[in-house]
Amino acid sequence: MLQIKNLHASVEDKEILKGVNLTIGPGEIHAVMGPNGAGKSTLAAVLTGRPGYTVTEGSVTFMGKDLLAMAPEERAWAGLFLSFQYPIEIPGVTITAFMKAAVNAKRRAEGLPELKAGEFLKLQKEKMAFLKMKQEFAKREVNVGFSGGEKKRNEIFQMAMLDPMLSILDETDSGLDVDALRIVADGVNALRSPEKSAIIVTHYHKLLEYVQPDFVHVLKNGAIVKTGGRELIGAIESEGFDQF
Q: Does the predicted TM-score (pTM) go above 0.85?
């Protein structure tokens, strides 16, 4: 599904990623852990095409296509999704209006007809019920006045509606209490399937107690220095990242 080879990237002429190699197959959950400043969020930004990041070397293939040659919106249409660490507010735009525009943009890119109003509302109702969300939530303006947990629930709802092939959760657990963590974990676990994959970027172990990854990678000084199974989480918790 995703193959990253010798990826180097810079921000304002400062090299952050220094040769990242990573392969993700269908149905796999990968955790990318590391200390602050290791390059975790830079990796997420580069994969999703955020402006200001320059790839200087290496390649990224997604679903058989050159990901780095695609515009950010093309990456989203191809099935890539990013859950932001700090979701922004969009005053004056309801969640329903926002999601209808996003879903139909993806459908147009896939050569499918736009959903009619009734079809969209039916889909939205089904996804909200699946995630155990109150229907009134969709009437609110995007992230305006939301608690941390509500913002994360909204992101998981967006993920459910867009049905991406690969979801990237960029430190989505930052600053969340236990209840909010469970919201994120329950949503990710509910959406797991043999075809869909996820990258969980974090430097805490708590979220990974609820969403158990298949693979754990340690990113340090811009490169993956260790890969293993869930046993790595315990080693990091007890001895930190200095051991690698």
A: yes
